[in-house]
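REQUEST FORM: STRUCTURE PREDICTION
Request ID: SP-0412
Submitted by: Lab K.M.
Chain count: 1
Length (residues): 192
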Amino acid sequence: MSTTPEENTGPENTTTEPEESGRPSFEPAGVETETAEESPHDAAEGQDPDQAGDPNTEGAEPVAGSTSDPRPGGVLSAETFGLVALVLLGVTIMSGQLLEMLTSMILVSGQPIAPEQIGHIELQLMMGGGVALLAVLFAGLSLALINPGTRPWAKWAATTTVIVGLLFVVIAAVAFYMVPEAAEQMMPPIME
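STATUS: Completed
RESULT:
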């Protein structure tokens, strides 16, 4: 039983594909298409396999200190610390206590106030200023962790938080400095 190649129409004869002359090619100009004899590793000897066929990376300089494409960080990345800084700044802004306390100190204008209130006022100013300072520290950490793979919004968020957070720290310091002295306690007359 002998068979000729014309009689064999089974799945064994699928190694050669007909030339696709009728289909349009969507390859960019100047890029050679890969043939059956050529593998991706043969075409890109000495190159990164990801960059072998990418026309956008040809002629581009590699990033200093990086052998592969930069990737955004994971859990402890610039984006994460930028979001934490934004949340802390939001707490500072939404509480409104720093601006309210500064306004109160301006309105009091050095007049003595009750001694019981001074401790509360100072504590509120320290807490508000402390949260604003924490926001600045987290934003600074976010800026320190920036790499080429960091998303642009993380840079903007961290920079904005540093600027606005420092303004709130200054507001807290000025209001703390403006806290007036305690009024003298009036002693009730002693009854005999």
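NOTES: The CA atoms of residues 49 and 174 lie 59 Å apart.
Reviewed by: T.R.
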